[in-house]
Structures are given as C-alpha cells and as structure tokens.
Amino acid sequence: MISISGRASSYAVVFLSATLITCDPGRAQSIGFTPSPSPSQPDQGTGSAEPAVGQGLAVTAYSSRPGAPYTIYLDFGGFSFNGLWGGSASYNPGVTPAYSVDANTSSFTATELANIKNIWSRVSEKYSPYNVNVTTVDPAVAANQAATDAQRQTYYDTHARIMHTVIGGSGGWTGGGGVSYIGVTPNSYTGTGFSNGYHTNWVFSGQSPSNLQFIGEGSAHENGHGLNLTHQSDYSGNTLINEYSSGTGTGAGSVAPIMGNSYSSERGLWKIGPSHVNSTGPTTQNDPNVFMSSNSGLSPFINDGVGHTLATATSIPLNGLSVDFNSATGVIVPTSNLPTATQGGANYTSDYWSFSTGAGSISLSVIAGRESITAGTADPGAMLDASLEILNTSGTVLFSAASNSLSQTLLPNLPAGNYIARVFSAGDPLGRNFYDMGSYFLKGTFVAVPEPSAALSLIVATVVGVFRRNKRRRS
Ligand SMILES: [Ca+2]
Ligand SMILES: [Ca+2]
Ligand SMILES: [Zn+2]
Q1: Which end of the chain is less packed: N or C, by CB atoms within 10 Å?
Q2: CATH number for region 310-450
C-alpha cells in the first residue's frame, strides 16, 4: 500500500442497489445505502472545496479502439457535476477541476499533456482484450450534446455502454482514491436513475497527480466497477484480511489485481479470486468472465487480425530487413469468451507470424505492451507475460523463449528459408490465478534473402550474350 497525500489511499465503491463501502484499509465499513429516490443516508461530507476552474480544457484526442461497442471516456478537462450523485444527499460532487500537476488548473503544461497520454495508454492496455474504446474524445461533443456539463451528463446517462471517468480533484466530497457505481455501464438511465449520474465515476488524481500508475490503475479499477466487478480481496478462510488485495507485493515479477490495489506491483491484472461482496464472505469472482457475461454486447474478446493457426500465419511487415514494429502488433486473449482458467498457454490465442530470411543470424523479440508513447518502446503498464517460438513451416518448434519475463528475444542462426514466429501467453505460469493477456509488438532484423529471379535473369542474359557473340564470330 502506498501512501497518497499522507494517508493510505483506496477506492471507494458504491453498489447501485445494495451497500456503500467506505474503503480505508484496515477499517472497511459498510453503511446501508438505498439509491434514489430515497436519499436518506448520513451526510459524509458536503461538496467539493475545489476551485471552479478548468472545466472543459481541451486535450489531445486518443482512442484505443474506435467504433467498439463500449466507451470509456477519460475526462481530464474538468467537470461540473449536476445534482447529487446517485440522487443521494451523501454525494455532492460539485466541480472537479481539470487534471493538474501544478497549481494551475486552467491550462495544461507539456508534462500534464504527456501524463494524460501515459494514463490513457495504461487504461487502454487494461481493456486491450475487450471490445472497449478507451478515449479522451468526449462522446457528448461528438453527439453535439455538450453545450453545458449538465447536458453532457444527461447524454452519458441516457446512453448505454458509456462511462465517463472524471480524473481530477482530491475527492474530499467522498474520500478514497476513486469512486464508481457497480454494474451500471451496460444500461441507459431514462427512468428512476435518470439524472443520477450513474455513468460518471471519478479518479481523484489530485491526491498524487504525478503517480501515473495510481491514476491509470485507478481508472481501470473504477471502470471495472462500472462493468460489474467488485473487489478482489484476501481472505483467511472466511475472514477478510484485505478488502483490496495487493497480490504478491512489489518489484520484479509482482502481480496484483486491478480490482484490488495494483498501485505498486509490476503488473496489475484481471484475476480469478475471492471477492468481497457486502461483507458476506469470499465469493469467487472471475473478472473477465463477469465482464463478458454481464455486459450485453461486450463479448467476444477482440480479434487482433493476426493469424491464429500455422496455416493462416500473417506475414511480418518489414521496413527493409527490420520488423516494422509499428504494425507488427497483436493482442493475446483467452480462447473462450467465458474463460474459466488462467493457467496454461492453450487457454489463450496464439498469433502466428510468417517471415523469410537468408542464411545467418537473425534477431526477433516479442515485447509486451503498447507503444503509443514511443514507437518501438513498450509503454508502462504492460499486462502480458509473452512467449515466443520460431517454427519451421511444418510447425516443428526450432527455438523457444518462454521465461517468466514480459518480453522475450531469440537470436538464432537460421538456414535461408521460410519460418513462422508464434507469440503466445505464458499462461499464468506460477498458477497465481491472474490472466496473462494483453498487447505486444515485434521487433527484429532478418538476413537478406538471395534474389533468385534476378540472378536467373542475369544468367539467361549472359548465356544469350555469349551465344550472340559466338554467332558473330562465326559470321
Ligand atoms: Ca496545470
Ligand atoms: Ca515470457
Ligand atoms: Zn473499488
């Protein structure tokens, strides 16, 4: 657990029709909560002390999967919430200022803009297996429904499959590192929930605005709630030890559940594990399975367009003799759209890439993660423990690199010929019940292939020339 603003930070979570949980590690408490129209809960703090500035600041447009059925809109520009969140007097969000590292919330610095892209990429990676567009583009603007923040809010709530994540402020109005309703994303709210702002959630970046892992993991976490997940917890028998599991801790090789506390682990991952639901004891929660089974239109997992069999291998795109890492990209996902197990590479798709090389030493690397910040370099926040094999065209494995490492490199000396590179998931090799899926790209260099057709032409031309010279001599 890392400390944010001098105290342990965590995410508050609100169950739409059940229980409000105010989450501070070690003293989780539950308070009965009934959503609107019965806002009868004790006031937990009034309004926001944030300055009313910075609303609607323009950010660079980024979209991870344009056209996907689900949208997670990351709103860094500031937002003025209209009314009481969920219709509850306990939740008076008021104005959230724009995301800011410095004291000026009325404009973005170059650092803040770079941080925004970094955070967007981190959240995009978490949702890379899913048909979700993580974007900084306001769908309400695209719909011409953004004359005011109140109109924007109405647009979000009345459209299914949208979440609006406000990233800014310190959250004094509710506490925790972020807050969201559970299971609201697939619905539209035009009846009892109308104007309650169910499609708006918050990540309180002001608590630690330069901690991009906190903000990125937090944004993925809150939207996990919107898509119907509760917390991944640690139990001893039926006794709750940590509501927010921090997995295997920190440092190289560490993993933690996105739906727990993944602020400090090497990887924050989707998990099968004991969840904490209404203090009733552990209930197994299979994160991606819940996503797929409870969000209409989200299934199936995405198809990255790379051949998934030997026979349908995709040619590795090249720049000369080097792999074109900008387009040699893919996403490894579970083979089942309702996955039941994390362990074993066979539970995930493989990507088959074909290439030709001349005789000699080649290099080929699979690098886990996205590369939207610097092409050819992994963005922070990669999820996949990638593995790599080189096969002959009959499918026999010639070389393999499959250590407990996110990225792998092979440097074989190959006879000239055609080969297949297979990228696949290590498949939770340590059996920790974390899904090993996510994006990757390839890098590498091959050896020039001899040009048989050109050489043949040369030979023919030479023979013809010799023949003609001979004829001339005779004549
Ligand atoms: Ca600023
Ligand atoms: Ca690996
Ligand atoms: Zn939470």
Answers
A1: C
A2: 2.60.120.380
Question: Do residues 27 and 103 make contact, with C-beta atoms less than 8 angstroms apart?
Answer: no
CA of 40 to the centre of ligand 2 (A): 52
User: Which bound ligand lies closest to the C-alpha atom of 382?
Assistant: 2
Mean pLDDT for each consecutive 10-residue tract of the chain (475 residues)?
33 43 28 23 26 61 97 97 93 96 95 98 98 97 93 95 98 94 93 80 97 98 97 93 94 96 97 84 94 97 98 98 98 98 98 98 98 98 98 98 96 98 97 98 94 56 43 40
| Integer CA distances (angstroms), 14 to 91, 180, 298, 328, in order | 11, 6, 22, 41
Supply 350's token pair: 């493989």
Which ligand does the CA of 220 lie closest to?
A: 3
Nearest to 120 by CA among 140, 136, 102: 136
Q: Which helix (H) or strand (E) covers residue 223, if one does? A: helix 212-226
**Ligand nearest to the CA of residue 112, numbered in listed order:** 1
User: Which of the ligands is closest to the CA of residue 102?
Assistant: 1
Inter-residue contact 109 to 102 (CB < 8 Å): yes
Report the predicted TM-score, pTM, of the whole model to 2 decimal places.
0.86
**Distance (Å, whole) CA 239 – CA 314:** 50
Distance between Cα 442 and ligand 2 center (Å) = 14
Residues with a beta carbon under 5 angstroms from ion ligand 2: 385, 387, 405, 426
Q: Is the preceding peptide bond at 37 cis, omega within 30 degrees of 0? A: yes
What distance lies between CA 277 and its chain's CA centroid?
24
Query: How far away, in angstroms, is 401 Cα from ligand 2 center?
Result: 7
Place of tokens 């009868």: 40
Is residue 256 within 8 Å of 246, Cβ to Cβ? yes
Distance, in Å, from the CA atom of 2 to the CA atom of 5, rounded to the nearest integer, reads 10
User: How far, in Å, CA of 151 to CA of 313, rounded?
Assistant: 48
CA distance 372 to 410: 24
Most distant CA pair in the chain, distance: 114
Query: What ranges do the domains of the chain cover?
Result: 3-294, 310-450
Q: Any long-range contacts for 242-249 (C-beta under 8 Å, 24+ apart)?
A: 242/25, 243/21, 243/23, 243/25, 243/28, 243/276, 244/1, 244/10, 244/11, 244/23, 244/25, 245/273, 246/1, 247/432, 247/434, 248/432
